[in-house]
Every structure is written in structure tokens, then in C-alpha cells.
Known about the structure:
about 625 residues, alpha+beta, 4-stranded mixed sheet, 8 strands
Amino acid sequence: MGAPTPLIDGLGSAILSCIGRTTCNPTSSSAENCVLGIEHWSDPGSDAEQWIMPSYFCASPRDKNSSPRRSRAGRKRRSGADQENSVVDRHPSRGFASALPARPKESRLWTVAAIFLILSFCLQAVLAVPRLSATSDEAVHLASGYSYWETRDFRMNPEHPPLAKLLAALPLLMIRPKLDTSTDVWKNSSEYEFGFDFLYRNDADRLLFWGRLPMIGLAALGAMLTFMWSRDLFGPVAAVLAVGLYAFSPNLLAHGMLITTDVPVAVFSLLTLYLFWKQRERPASRGSLVTGLALGLAMATKYSGALLPLLIVGLSCLRAFRQSNRKQAILAEVRSLMMMAAASLFVIEAAYLFAVSPIVYFRNASFVNANHSPTYPYYLLGQLKEGGWWYYFLIAFIFKATLATLILILLGIIRGFAGLLHRWGETILLATIVFYVAVISAGADNLGIRYLLPIFPLLFIWVSRIVPLYWPNPFGRALLVVLFGWQIWAALWTFPNYIPYFNELAGGAGRGTDILDDSNVDWGQALKQAAAYVKEKAIENVTVCSFSPFDNTPYYGLPANLPAPQTAARLLSKPPAPGTYIVSGHYVARMKALDPAWHPYQPVDRIGESLWVYRFQ
């Protein structure tokens, strides 16, 4: 078998090689195949042996008396125990791997296609970065991260753990921007004022460009992990579909380039679950340590990452009760969980640069949403309501996910869930998705689809399970190609305005404010486009009402930002004050809900699909 394509598999091996003998039985008749990184199976209904994708991360030792070059005829069919320990999850009713067989050359071609898709994701993000102004939280996160490096003082932005902010600020250590810690803003921990001063007293565009690059790199890592897990479960063809859905997801593109915590926690959560899955039925010391390190990365990125320990404990219990010797399995799981806990605490302490006690991490959890008013009215489908709705995130997903993704999910559901518990990888994927959606729906503020981003890669992996069923059939293959092309078109058509993306069910971005507000429609990212619009149209009497009071509109050549209440007062007067108004879609949605007098007003244009232009004579 030819060597695997080195880029993805080399990185994957570097991450996962220390998992050890967690996926193969070295005493089984397939030990040689484990050493070679080959999974070998046969259809019980056929005498013909077939081949599926490599299991590159199997590290069981080779029997000294075995030869990896035996002929196919000389290889023994694996026993039932060997099949149970296979790297590839097996279809319960047929007894063989639910993955498409692929020759080595074909497998390499699919891997090359995956690399191309990951690079396409990076290209889209890098090209979009200079076109977008700073979003609401980026200045805070970047300034906080840089202050951590320079001062080892973690007073700023305590409601989020430091890791993503540190990574974003890492390139700034070469630029050495000005950081003033002598002001009252610093002493009082006024994070938004501090972020504003830091960003705009320096070259804001330069800082944003370099700060966003590590975020794109992290998002690309998520794409790579999506490919690897889908390939291990369902084969290389399915994996290309999964990574393609990721690479051209408007929501992951929207937030994957921003200096925020949403996509980083999604990536590190995906890494944690993938490593946990690689342990299979035998939690081993090295595998537990590596999984714990990944868990620490997720927890040190965002406090929603702290949901993972609960999930892993539950999955570990399920894994233990699947074993025949439950007492021994429970003891092994307890040891594994203790090792994960120790490793994750080490990473959390490292994320605080070993400057404070790990207790700070748990103490700062009390700051989560501390700056959110308990009486704040959330917005959904034209209505405002304190406390929000339990189904908010389900509605957001239906209208913000691409239609191609929704159709693939339906096809996956139609295929059914029979024998799910016998397919450990799918069990982990679906259990995580259900658990995360339930917790977020019950407890998170109704502010945006970005809170659901951790489930997107998991969904893309799970829906790729239909590829082995559909791909061999010409009609099924055509359907998959059409859906894949639809996903690509959605992203390319949206570029670079990914944040206000809404699918065709919603009526597109132009109807988005009828459904959602906040970071679903505008987060302050279109001010550069607004400045270009005003200059091109030679508009003089302009009033700008952007998303955040900390949007520095004069930096981009626009008039000073007018607060929303004053903008509303001007527009709702009889008649409206003359002039051109550029209003954030967020406030358009809320003013429509608050005052029926707003409804007759129709915009003359939209800028970046997130700023609405009104003109009155």
C-alpha cells in the first residue's frame, strides 16, 4: 500500500501517535494489519476480501514473527473479537464497515482533495480579513491577550479563559504595539474602553490582520480533524464531503477568522472528542493524557468547554457498561478520568502562564454573562421577550445553516439509528450534539448561532455517514454532488459578508432581520464597506448608527456613531429628519419590534448585507 499523503496524515500522526494500543489488539490475527495502518475486512456474504481506508494512528507492536508483506490469500480472516476492536465502526445488521472501499491511489487523491478544500477555507478567510472592520468583541480580546503576555496580569476580560486571546495576540509580540497600563481604564478593568484605546492608538488594521491569522489557523485545524474523523469512520469519500461542508460553511467562515472564542472552543472540543474516540474500548495511559491535554485546551478557551468533562464522564460510564468485565472496566475508566483531569488542569495553569493559581479559572466562571442585563429583551421572529425562548437556537440553526446541510441531516435521519450503540463513533457524535444543544438552549443567552458552532463539525462528520450508501448509486452520487456544489455556492455567493448569512428558507440576508438580531445580522464588521459606499456615492449628510458604541466610525472615514435611541428619535419623528441614515441591521430588527411606525420605512440599499441605508428628503 502506498504511503499516505503526508500533510494531513503527518500532522495527525504527530498529534495522535502517543495514543498507543488503543485501537487494535496486538495479539489478534490482524496485528500485522495494525502495524501497517491497514484495516482489513470481508463481507460475510461474500468470499471476496476488500480494503478500506488506512488507520494511520494504530501503534500496536508488530509480532516479530509476522510479515507485513504476506499475500492477500495468506491473510487470515479476522475473528469476531478482532472485528469488534476494529478502528472502523461497523454496521450492526451487515457486520462490515460502513465505509467505502478505496484503493491506495484513490485514497491519496481524496486526501489531496481534502487538502485543497482546507486551503480553500483559509483563502476565503484571508481574503475576507482586510475587507472587514473590527467586530464587537475583537478589540477586547486582542488587547486582553496582549496585556496577558506583557504584564502576566489577567484582570481584563475575566469572563473568558485566556487561551484563544493569547494565541491571537502571539504575532503582536513581534509588532510590539503600544500598551498603556497607567490609565484609570486599566486600573478599573474597563475592558471595552481598554480594548478601544489599544486598538485605535495603534495601527488597527495591522493588528487585526495579524491577530486574525492564528484564528484562521485554528479553524483550519478543525477542518483537518473533521476530515480525519470522518475518514476513520466512513472512508475518504465521506471525509471529503465532511471537510467540504466545513470549508464552505458560511457560519464557520464568519467566525473562524475573528478574534473570538467561539470557533477555537469548537476546534479544541472536536480534538478532545476525537482523541477520546480513538481510545476505543481500552482507555490507555498515554491516550488518556493526550485526551486530557486536549480537554484542557477546550476548557482554557471558553467556559462552555467546561461542559466537556460532564460529557466525557457520561460517555466513559457508557463505555464501561458495554464491557463484559464491568468492575475492571470501571476501574480503568476511573484511572483514565483522573489522568485526564490532571492533564487538563496542567493546561489550564499553562494558559494562565503559570502566573496565578488554577483556582482563578473556577473563580472567574462567576463572571460569565455578568455584564448582561437580566431584563434584556431578546429578539426572535419579530418579537422581544425577556429571558428568551428555549427553542431560539433551533430556529437560528434552521435559518442560518445552509439548505444543503439541512437536507443532508434529513437524509442521515432517514437512514435511521438502528444499532447506534454498536457504532461507538456515531454514539459520541450524536450524544455530544444532543447534550450541547440541550444545555445551550436551556442556559445560554439568545444572542446568536455562534453559540452552536461546536456542533457544526460534529454534524458534518455525522451526515457524511450517508456517503457509503448513496455514492455507489448514480442517482445518489448525483444528489451528493449537487448538495456539495450548493454548499460551495452558498459560501462563494456570500463572500465576504458571512456574518449576516441566512439560507433560502429565511429569504436570504435581506430578510434576516425579520428572524434574528445581534451577531446573526451585524457585529460591526461592515464599516469599511460603509465608508467606501459613502465615498462612492458622494453622500454628505450621513448619520451612522452602528452595532456597538465602541465602533470607531471616524477611523474608517465616517461620521461619529450616533446612539440607537437618538437615531430612532430622528427617524420616527414626523416627518423624519432629512438625510441619509446607515443603520445596523441589529437596530433595524429591534426598532421594527418596538414601534410599528418603523414598518413603512424601506431601505434604499444594504451595505455588506448588515447595514441598512435609509434616505429622506
